[in-house]
């Protein structure tokens, strides 16, 4: 008999083999029949039968403790899995690598009074250190999700001291066992600092940096030397805070497509290896990578590029220290990236008065050693088209990615260092959502806030956004929230700011902006904190973005 046609079960079996997990204690039943029937003729596995699930779990404890290997226990639906609790509790407090593989009907049957259908979404804290649920695989996204979850579950068996792990999988009782050879699914391995490291492959090598705190000099030197040795490039947006010689903003390199795909991704962004560090990025990068290595001390899978095959559980410094040997001193790749960026930058035509145009004017004239805080979505994207000076730090609330605290985060940062200028750029909705914070007396004279007031959530009226494409002007009523907060009142923010002791500035066109923005960017603290309100038309904002994406 061959393997089941059910893809999630194929993934489990294939990855058990890839992670060299052979021992399985099987309890009888119908719900796990597709898994059991798929492995019972596969001599690669060591299979043992136990009718009582309580005994099966304890058999696994003894087998794992004596052999030093992970052991799988497989049971049917209904209350069978409940009988694993005593043995898994034993395994939890002894750090024994037991994988409880519990079979289920499709998850839509839960809580609907289908017979033998239990809710396994909540388990006791001390029976498994990691628990996942695998739905039936219907498309590529489902497959990607299941592959991720199975890999992480299998890695958890021996990670951080080891212990029991739970996989609950749905199945449809397929009678098709015609699969003779299991497909190869992506295997994810975890490495610690003293493990043997893989070699850097030949081809295009890149580092992608998500949002990142200020870099230490040691890390910066290690990364720059790595790039010299391997002819590598550092991609990311301004919140990466990478200030070395090998950085490239990749957002400008991606252009609109007139074909079937939404974007044209240049070949320069197709890499053989991408090393992913940092946290969430608001850039929504279009980089394609054959292999992705994730480096972080938490050792967790962050598979935003959907192709991770190694997790390095260590600091970035420890990782890059390992790859410092080599004689190459090539800068071909970064030169190619810079050439493309400069070529596109130099082709930027006249832009409408917009957030993007303001960012282009301001990006090269930021105060020395200042700190820039960007609102999410439209503002962050507008600034990520342009390089900022290397002595300027850049942050955005991309962790939760909400508009609710952009101004408050700027205030908090500005009181931490009174000797530096802190500049925030936010949209009108983000400001009004968070406007109460500037009434606090802690706001100092190193605080400067630019408000891009277009009278709505302009992100939803951009030419390519689904809300604008589908709803058009009807998006104004609810989706983009047009008409709130004074309907672009010329006095509302002005009077509020002045009443709080702020210096207030405003501009409604390019000439007014150009007459004031250098004063706003002065590199010395002013007498009062400053608010600079920019009144912009959402149509001009959308057109500016369209121009940038169609250079």
Could you explain how this protein is built, in words?
This protein is of the alpha/beta class and 551 residues long. The protein has helices at residues 7-18, 33-39, 53-67, 85-94, 140-156, 217-230, 316-322, 332-346, 355-362, 378-383, 406-414, 428-433, 466-471, 492-499, 510-520, 538-548, and strands spanning 23-26, 46-49, 71-75, 98-104, 130-134, 165-170, 189-191, 205-209, 233-236, 247-249, 255-256, 263-264, 270-277, 288-295, 308-312, 371-374, 393-396, 422-427, 447-453, 503-507, 530-535. It folds into 3 domains: 7-184, 3-Layer(aba) Sandwich (Rossmann fold); 205-340, 3-Layer(aba) Sandwich (Rossmann fold), CATH 3.40.50; 348-548, Thiamin diphosphate (ThDP)-binding fold, Pyr/PP domains (Rossmann fold, 3-Layer(aba) Sandwich), CATH 3.40.50.970. It has 16 helices and 21 strands. Strands 7-15-14-13-8-9-10 form a 7-stranded parallel sheet, with helices on one face.
């Amino acid at each position: 008999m061959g393997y089941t046609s059910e893809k999630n079960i194929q993934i489990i079996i294939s990855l058990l083999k890839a992670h060299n997990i052979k021992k399985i204690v099987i309890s009888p039943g119908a719900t796990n029949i597709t898994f059991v029937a798929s492995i019972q003729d596969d001599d690669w596995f060591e299979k043992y039968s136990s009718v009582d699930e309580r005994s099966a779990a304890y058999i696994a404890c003894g087998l794992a403790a004596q052999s030093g290997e992970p052991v799988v226990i497989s049971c049917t639906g209904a209350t069978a899995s409940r009988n694993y609790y005593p043995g898994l509790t034993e395994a939890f407090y002894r750090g024994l690598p037991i994988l409880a593989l519990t079979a289920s009907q499709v998850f839509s049957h839960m809580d609907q009074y289908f017979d033998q259908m239990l809710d396994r979404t909540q388990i006791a804290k001390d029976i498994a250190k990691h628990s996942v649920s695998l739905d039936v695989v219907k498309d590529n996204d489902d497959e990607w999700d299941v592959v991720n979850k199975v890999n992480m579950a299998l890695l958890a068996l021996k990670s951080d001291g080891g212990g029991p792990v739970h996989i609950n999988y749905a199945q449809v009782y397929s009678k098709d066992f015609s699969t003779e050879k299991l497909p190869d699914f992506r295997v994810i391995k975890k490495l610690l600092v003293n493990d043997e490291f893989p070699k850097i492959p030949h081809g295009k090598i890149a580092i992608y940096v998500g949002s990142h705190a200020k870099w230490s000099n040691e890390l910066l030197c290690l990364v720059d030397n790595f790039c010299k040795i391997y002819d590598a490039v550092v991609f990311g947006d301004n919140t990466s805070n990478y200030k070395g010689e090998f950085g490239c903003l990749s957002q400008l390199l991606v252009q609109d497509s007139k074909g079937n795909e939404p974007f044209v991704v240049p070949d320069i962004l197709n890499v053989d290896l991408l090393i992913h560090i940092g946290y969430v990025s608001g850039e929504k990068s279009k980089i394609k990578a054959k292999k992705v290595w994730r480096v972080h001390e938490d050792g967790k899978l962050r598979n935003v590029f959907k192709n991770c095959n190694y997790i390095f559980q260590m600091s970035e410094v420890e990782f890059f220290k390992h790859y410092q040997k080599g004689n190459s001193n090539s800068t071909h790749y970064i030169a190619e990236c810079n050439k493309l960026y400069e070529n596109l930058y130099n082709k930027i035509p006249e832009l409408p008065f917009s957030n993007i145009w303001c960012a282009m004017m301001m990006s090269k004239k930021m105060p020395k050693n200042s700190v820039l805080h960007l609102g999410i979505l439209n503002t962050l994207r507008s600034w990520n088209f342009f390089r900022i000076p290397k002595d300027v730090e850049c942050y955005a609330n991309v962790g939760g990615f909400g508009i609710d605290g952009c101004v408050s985060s700027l205030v908090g940062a500005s009181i931490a260092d009174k000797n530096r200028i802190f500049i925030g750029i936010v949209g009108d909705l983000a400001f009004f959502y968070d406007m109460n914070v500037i009434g606090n007396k802690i706001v100092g004279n190193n605080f400067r806030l630019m408000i891009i007031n277009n009278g709505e959530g302009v992100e939803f009226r951009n030419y390519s956004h689904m809300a604008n494409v589908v709803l058009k002007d009807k998006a104004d009523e609810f989706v983009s929230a047009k008409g709130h907060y004074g309907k672009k009142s010329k006095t509302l923010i002005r009077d509020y700011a002045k009443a709080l002791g702020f210096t207030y500035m405003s501009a409604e066109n390019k000439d007014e902006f150009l007459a004031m923005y250098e004063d706003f960017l002065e590199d010395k603290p002013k007498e009062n904190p400053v608010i600079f309100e920019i009144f912009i038309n959402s149509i001009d904002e959308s057109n500016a973005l369209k121009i940038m994406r169609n250079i």
